[in-house]
Amino acid sequence: MADAILTATDLVKHYPIKGGVLRRTVGHVKAVDGVSFQLMRGETLGIVGESGCGKSTLGRLLMRLEEPTSGTLDFDGIDMYSKKGSEMRKLRRDIQIVFQDPYTSLNPRMTVGDIIGEPFDIHPDVVPKAGRRKAVQDLLDMVGLNPEHINRYPHQFSGGQRQRIGIARGIALNPKVLICDEPVSALDVSVQAQVVNLMEKLQDELGLSYVFIAHDLSVVRHISDRVGVMYLGRMAELGNEDEVYQHPTHPYTQALLSAVPVPDPTLRGKREQIVLTGDVPSPANPPSGCRFHTRCWKAQEKCKVDTPELIERPDGVGAHFSACHFAEPRLVIETVDVSDVEPDERFSSTEVVDPGALLERDGAATTAADDVVSDGTQQGEPVGEPDASREDVFREEVRGDAPDRRDI
Ligand SMILES: Nc1ncnc2c1ncn2[C@@H]1O[C@H](COP(=O)(O)OP(=O)(O)O)[C@@H](O)[C@H]1O
Ligand code: SF4
Ligand SMILES: [Mg+2]
Predict the structure, then answer these.
(1) Alpha helices (H) in 74-153, listed in sequence order
(2) How far is the CA of 304 from the centre of ligand 2 (A)?
(3) Given the CA of residue 298, which atom of ligand 2 is nearest to it?
(4) Does the beta carbon of 292 sit less than 6 angstroms from any atom of ligand 2?
(5) Which atom of ligand 1 is nearest to the CA of 53?
(6) Distance CA 70, CA 59 (A)
(7) What residue's CA is closest to ligand 1, atom 16?
(8) CA-closest residue to ligand 2 atom 5
(9) Is the pTM of this model over 0.85?
(10) How far is the CA of 296 from the centre of ligand 2 (A)?
(11) DSSP string over 40-85
(12) Does residue 326 have its Cβ closer than 6 Å to ligand 2?
C-alpha cells in the first residue's frame, strides 16, 4: 500500500443543539458523519462541497482542534486521538492549519514578526530565542514577502500578502501536513493564483502534504492530486483528477461540474447544465438513505432506505470511489487541464473565466504584488527575482484586469 501520512476512519462530529429553558440537548447537527480517507505523503487532497457540508469541521478534526464524536485518526503510525498533554502538543507541530480569511485570522495588534513567531513561543525548543528574528525573516522571504517588513502590522498588507503571512505562520514549525481551509476563497482571482502557486512551491521545497479545502471544484483541480467531494457531512465521491473531472459517477459531482466555468469560450452554452432543485437539507435532520436523494434526479426507492457506501465503482475506464447505488460515468463537459499549454495559446478571447487557467497564467508572473492596500501604499515584492524593479512588477499587476472570481 502507498505510504499514507494521515488515515481518517469513520470520523464523526455531532454538535449538540440545546433547547428549552433547561438547555437540554434536543438534537444534533451532524456536521461530519462518517468520513474516511487517506492522505498520502507529499500529496494534495482537495476537499470540495457546498457551504455547510462539514469541510471546516473535518479540517479541525484532522488537527484535533475539536474532539471527534467517534472515529479514529492515524497520523504517521500514531493514534492521534489517544494522545494527551505533552505528547499531543508535540504532534501539533506536525499538523498545522491555514485559515480562509486573511482579514480576521491575524491579530491586528500584533506585528507580523510576532504573528509568525508565535508558534516558536509555544514550542520554544524549535528555534532558540536568539535565532527567532532571523527565522521569521527567513519565513517571510520564503513566502515572497520583504523580510524588512517584520515590524509591520497586518493592516499594512493586502489580502494576498496577509494570506502569505498566514502561510508563513503555518509552516513555521516545519510541519508534515498543512490543512488549508479555503485559503484562497476570500481573495481576488489573480491573487488566488499567486497564493496557490506559492503553496505548490512550498510543497515541493518542504515535502508537505496538503488537505486543501475549497467550495469550488476548479480551484481544487489545479492543485490537487486527488479530490474528495463532500455532501452533508459525508464523502460522495473520491478519486484522482481524471476520475473526478472526466468520469464522475456521482450525480452530485456531475451537478457541481456542470456549474464550473468552461475554459474554451466556443464551448460555452453547449454543455448541459444540471440544475439542482431544492435547498441543501439541514445537517440536523439529514435525509435517510442516500443524503442526496431529495435533490437527485436519479433517486429511486432504494436510495431513501439504503445508505450507499463509498466504494470503488466502475467509471467507464476503471473504477473509483463513489457513494451512489446507481453510479455511472457521465461526461459533463470535455475540460482540459491547461497546465502545460503556453499562456498565449490558451486564450482566444480576453473573456477569461477559467480559474484553473488563470492560475497558470498568473503563475508565470511569479510576483507577490498581490494588490493595492487600502491606503494605496505599494506592497508588492517580486518573488524569486529579487533584481526586478518592484514598482514595475507592481504596475504590471494592477494594470491586468483580472476578472472577479466571486461572480463565477
Ligand atoms: N461549533 C459548532 N457548533 C454547532 N454547529 C456547528 C459548529 N461548527 C459548525 N457547525 C455546523 O456544522 C455544519 C458544518 O459546518 P462547517 O464544517 O463549517 O461547514 P463548511 O466548512 O463546509 O461550510 C454547519 O451546519 C454548521 O452550522
Ligand atoms: S444513491 Fe440514489 S439518490 Fe443517491 S446519488 Fe445515487 S441515484 Fe442519487
Ligand atoms: Mg468552512
Answers:
(1) 85-94, 112-122, 132-142
(2) 9
(3) 7
(4) yes
(5) 22
(6) 15
(7) 54
(8) 324
(9) no
(10) 6
(11) ETT-EEEEE--TTSSHHHHHHHHHTSS--SEEEEEETTEEGGG--H
(12) yes
236 CA closest ligand 2 atom index: 5
* pLDDT above 70 for 346: no
Do residues 156 and 103 touch, judged by C-beta distance below 8 A? no
Torsion sign, CA atoms 276, 277, 282, 288: negative
Name the closest-CA residue to atom 20, ligand 1. Answer: 52
Ligand that lies nearest to the alpha carbon of residue 47, given by its number in the listed order: 1
Q: Is the CB of 350 under 6 A from ligand 1?
A: no
The length of the chain in residues reads: 408
Q: Would you put residue 196 in left (φ > 0), alpha (ψ -120 to 50) or beta?
A: alpha
Q: Give the DSSP letter string of 334-397.
A: -----TTS-HHHH-SSS----HHHHHHHHHTT-B------TT------BSS-TTS-HHHHHHHH
Residue ranges and CATH numbers for the domains of the chain are 4-224 (3.40.50.300), 231-322 (no CATH)
CA 251 from centroid of its chain's CA atoms: 22
Residues 262-295: tens digit of each pLDDT: 666 666 666 677 888 788 899 999 999 999 999 9
User: What is the pLDDT averaged over residues 320-328?
Assistant: 97
Q: Tell me which residue has its CA closest to atom 6 in ligand 2.
A: 324
Ligand 1 binding pocket includes 66 (Cβ within 6 Å): no
CA separation for the pair 250, 63 (Å, rounded): 29
- Our answer on whether the CB atom of 287 is closer than 6 Å to any ligand 2 atom is no
Write out the DSSP string of 2-19. --EEEEEEEEEEEEEEEE
CA 166 and chain centroid, separation: 14
Residue 405 Cα to ligand 3 middle (Å): 18
Residue 324, CA distances (Å) to 145, 257, 342 in order: 46, 17, 39
Atom of ligand 2 nearest to the CA of 327: 6
Nearest to 6 by CA among 173, 209, 239, 200: 209
> Which pLDDT tens digit goes with each residue over 91-147?
999 999 998 877 788 899 999 999 999 999 989 888 988 999 999 999 999 999 999
